[in-house]
Amino acid sequence: MFLTAVDAGVYEDSGRTAGFQRGSQTSSAVAAWVGEDEPAELVVDRLMSNLVVASTAGPLIDDRTCRVGLRSASEQFQLGSGDGVLLTMTGETAGAPVELFPALLYCWLSWWRRQVNALRDGPEMPPPPKRGHADDYVGQLATWIEQAMEQHRRRPASRVNVPLPPERLDLVENGRRFVVRLSDFELTTWPDPPS
Fold first, then answer.
1. How far apart are CA 22 and CA 24, in angstroms?
2. How far is residue 106's CA from residue 115's CA, in Å, rounded to a whole number?
3. ∠ CA 31-58-2, rounded to 5°
4. CA distances from 139 to 92, 130, 131 (A)
5. Measured between alpha carbons, how far is 195 from 186 in angstroms, rounded to an integer?
6. What DSSP assignment string belongs to 9-53?
7. For residue 55, what are the CA distances in angstroms to 3, 69, 140, 162?
8. Which of 31, 52, 99, 139 is deepest in the core (most CB within 10 A)?
9. Closest Cα to residue 66, out of 194, 192, 180?
10. Contact 2, 27 (CB under 8 A)
């Protein structure tokens, strides 16, 4: 469960603008319409710098395209982490709910985090052998060390910085499936929010 904030943008309604401002401060996924004169990358920079809780945020370029920022998803995830990926999400068919593209990417990110955590929470290592007769202890200790090293090799790195999403995600809304293509991947770092 998470809140998606979508900026109505094209409406000059101060109530809607204030509602978006409040909602976006606590949203995991944020979408905002951009004006024709606003470069999408600058809007992503602004959103990701100002909305430290958002894992994904992006301007809606047109009715099929969204440029999205994906914040770093390491296990040591810190609020305000500036590392991430910038990418373009494009619906293959008309009528795709483009305002949900950042939320779709956030859902993928949540799934990815669960997969990494499940791998890290693999089988527990047995405790080291108890000291006993020197010859037996050395053999048991060597076996235990080999098991520990093998288990360590199978686990992912303890600090995974930025996941790269797949090139296609499927969005299902009201029983309809929309294919969304992901492209133009670019590693980036967002500036700190203005003081």
1. 6
2. 14
3. 50
4. 60, 12, 11
5. 27
6. -SS--HHHHHHHHHHHTT-SEEEEE--TTS-HHHHHHHHHHH-TT
7. 11, 8, 46, 11
8. 31
9. 180
10. yes
- Token pair 């520990």 is at which residue? 148
pLDDT value of position 75? 38
What is the tens place of the pLDDT at every residue in 57-77?
999 999 899 999 998 654 334
| pTM reported for the whole predicted model | 0.70
What is the phi-psi region of residue 113: left when phi exceeds 0, alpha when psi lies from -120 to 50, beta otherwise? alpha
CA nearest neighbour of 190 among 27, 5, 42: 42
Read off φ and ψ for residue 173, nearest 5 degrees.
Answer: -135, 130
- What tokens were used for 88? 């373009």
First to last CA, the chain: 31
